[in-house]
């Protein structure tokens, strides 16, 4: 088994590509070791000293480290954990713990429902595939009075360029196609 690695725009996050499916559907975000309880793989990665976050996509795992940890030391240990896990045949997630589709349900008024559907469609077709290339995900969290609230995960969470991505990229895209959108803001998980 050969696992490729790729850098991400976030220097604290590295993308690992095991060459096989990680999650059949959706994504899974583990911002803390406690959140990793439903995933044997995430728990094992968190056992590596310095790991502060784990994120699963369809065919990748992104791992975030603390500032004191050097990738030269953490990367071989993480590669070993991922290789051992996939060779063991153990599940990535326990029981019914599959990945989530990501988007929150819209709870606002009905007239915003069509706008929210357009926002989710643009996120799914134009934004999420691009950020998955960088080892992360961006999901819809809410829409209120022209403001779109998005949740950033994986490599996107805490990335130095995430504000630029939100403001110059996603906000401009949404405002171009949906005149009702006036601003995009990040929300914490």
TrEMBL record:
This is NifU family protein. Gene3D superfamilies: Fe-S cluster assembly (FSCA) (3.30.300.130), Scaffold protein Nfu/NifU, N-terminal domain (3.30.1370.70). Belongs to the NifU family. InterPro entries: FSCA_dom_sf, Nfu/NifU_N, Nfu/NifU_N_sf, NFU1-like, NIF_FeS_clus_asmbl_NifU_C. Pfam families: Nfu_N, NifU. The lineage of its organism: Bacteria, Pseudomonadati, Pseudomonadota, Alphaproteobacteria, Rhodobacterales. SUPFAM superfamilies: Fe-S cluster assembly (FSCA) domain-like (SSF117916), Hypothetical protein SAV1430 (SSF110836). Residues 3-89 form the Scaffold protein Nfu/NifU N-terminal domain.
């Amino acid at each position: 088994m050969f696992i490729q690695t790729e850098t991400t725009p976030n220097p604290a996050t590295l993308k690992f590509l095991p060459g096989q499916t990680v999650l059949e559907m959706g994504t899974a975000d583990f911002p803390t070791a406690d959140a990793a309880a439903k995933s044997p793989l995430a728990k094992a990665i968190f056992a590596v000293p310095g790991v502060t976050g784990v994120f699963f996509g369809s065919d990748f795992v992104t791992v975030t480290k603390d500032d004191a940890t050097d990738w030269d030391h953490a990367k071989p240990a993480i590669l070993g954990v991922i290789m051992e896990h996939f060779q063991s045949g153990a599940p990535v997630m326990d029981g019914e713990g599959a990945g989530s589709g990501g988007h929150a349900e819209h709870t606002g008024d009905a007239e915003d429902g069509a706008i929210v559907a357009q926002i989710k469609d643009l996120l799914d077709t134009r934004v999420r595939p691009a950020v998955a290339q960088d080892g992360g995900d961006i999901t819809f969290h809410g829409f209120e009075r022209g403001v779109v609230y998005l949740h950033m995960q994986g490599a996107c969470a805490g990335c130095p360029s995430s504000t630029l991505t939100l403001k110059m990229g996603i906000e401009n895209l949404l405002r171009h196609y949906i005149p009702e959108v006036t601003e995009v803001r990040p929300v914490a998980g």
